[in-house]
Design brief:
The complex is a heterodimer.
Chain A lengths: L4 H9 L10 E2 L5 E4 L3 H12 L14 E4 L9 H17 L3 E3 L9 H7 L8 E4 L13 E4 L2 H10 L5 E2 L2 E8 L8 H12 L7 E6 L1 H4 L3 H11 L6 E3 L4 H9 L20 E6 L6 E3 L7 E3 L10 E5 H4 L2 H11 L9 E5 L3 H10 L1 H7 L3 E2 L20 E4 L15 E4 L2 H10 L5 H4 L2
Parallel strand pairs in A: 2-3, 2-5, 3-4, 5-6, 8-9, 8-11, 9-10, 14-15, 14-17, 15-16, 17-18
Antiparallel strand pairs in A: 1-7, 12-13
Chain B lengths: L1 E6 L6 H4 L22 H9 L7 E4 L11 H7 L4 E4 L4 H10 L2 E4 L10 E5 L2 E4 L5 E3 L5 H9 L2 H12 L11
Parallel strand pairs in B: 1-2, 2-3, 3-4
Antiparallel strand pairs in B: 1-5, 5-6, 6-7
Helix pairs in contact in B: 3-4
Classes of the chains: A alpha/beta, B alpha/beta.
Chain lengths: 430, 173
Amino acid sequence: MGMTVVEKILARATGQAQVRVGDVVEPAVDLAMSHENAALVINQFQEIFEGTGLEPTVWDPSKIAIIFDHRVPAESSKTATNQKRIRDFVAAQGISKFHDVRADQGGICHQILPEYGYVRPGYVVVGTDSHTTSHGAVGAFAFGLGATEMAAVWALGKVLNVEVPATIKVVANGSFGQWVSPKDLILYLIGKISAEGANFRVLEYHGSAIRNMPVSGRLTVSNMSMEAGATAGIIPADEETELYLRREAGVTDDLDVVQPDADAVYEQVVEIDVAELGPQIAKPHTVDNVCGVGEVEGLKVQQIVIGSCTNGRLDDLEIAARLLRGKTVAKGTRMLVFPASWKIYKQALRSGVLADLADAGAVIMNSGCGCCLGVHQGALGDGEVALATTNRNFKGRMGNPKGEVYLCSPATAAASAVTGVITDPRKVGA
Amino acid sequence: MAKVVFKLGDDISTDIIYPGRFMATVLPTETPQYAFADEVEINAKLKSGEIEPGSCIVAAKNFGCGSSREQAASCLKGYDLIVVANNFSRIFLQNSINLGLRTVIAPGLEAAEGDELEFLGDKIVNETSGKEFTIEPLPAARQAIVDAGGLIPYARQKLAEMRTLPPGVAHSR
């Protein structure tokens, strides 16, 4: 019987010829990522060793990555103290893939991992962040887990008791219309299959729309697969993956370009023609509350946000700059831009994209998670509406349960910044 | 017997259970104060001390969707609550099992606030309405962690198997 991509990766990671859906396996981990919540992982890690007489040392310091991104620079003494504890732990354990609050190496964890080539096709990647699904974009089996489970990974080098998940095949064919993007595709898919439609399952992406998509857009699709509940959102590696890892990340090693078998078994197949798609919006307060932009056009917006691990990459910022060049952010609306990494920040700085955005009135923020999860700048006031390229619109998400968050693509966000109301980018863009 | 103290709907996210702005607080002794912090009535009732340990939260589908923050499980464990839902989001369910927060999957459960539930192996009896509902067993991979008393003791056993222990040190549970 044929295997899906994730089944093949799990078979390799457990030294077996074959795994089947429902098998319980303990896959070896190729990369284990944490951010500031490593502070909790450290506590749990030390507790595992308590009473064993063993020195609490991590299984392999070269396979652990820690990136500060959720609250950079620290917004409170509590966070600063957590970050200090993590720095001390990183130094004591010899963890080399550490990205501190620095403009020569910092950024959002889900951008840093591919940018530095820490994630590869065929890898088993775990992260104490639900959007670890992002790394499916380069063909890795990447999934989120909690701090205690990560502590066990740090101790043992494997994930305990993983059930081989069933896979849903998503086939996206066709060409995107102008100002329609991978974000619109993934929002549409989540709306179609619901916020729990892929719970305990893997989404495996195929079709010409995926093949023609740069890794940047694939990261958006894999990232938000989580919002359909998916354990992972994987895009089998191809020439584009290899090109990205070699050119952008400087990877020189051989790559294990894992492909699904022709007779792989899928629980379900979902087909989408992206040529039929217009700009999509996820309305408050669930990500599957999706509609076409027309349904909410004209709604007044107080805060526009472009950024996050979902849509803070260079091409996202460039789209925004194209729509805003020579125009200004509407009166009564504020626009915040969070580049996903400092590398992207500096590329956009040097190319003039940031200047164009700032000239239009956008505030260029520090690279990091920013206001996406309501912990670090950019909170909403009571009754305010945000239109954001981020990944969640849950009640309270942007720091205020009395605010509302609508999700969209960078083009829709930028077009709406100009008008101050939710706007179809096809009506603003040339 | 467990009393239903809160009846909640679909898609209760971890942002509702434990808002992001409290994520720098990590100790299980400190997280319970922020449970449902933005749902002021729930938070106040929890903090009032009037809820008996072993009481139930009953929710509909996809409880715990969203972030992997473990505080969402530890804050409820601090009140020794049982969470009964039609189904759970994967990461929240795993975190709950890892930390020993009791979670019960009951796809067709009907219960209202104030009802008394009896858990009998593979079924729930709603003593108030007299109706019975099926409990979906935990996947085998997760039951092993529950049986070990949580992921920390379970991982400690595995660690002892994998790394050579110094002489004279017994395997610790």
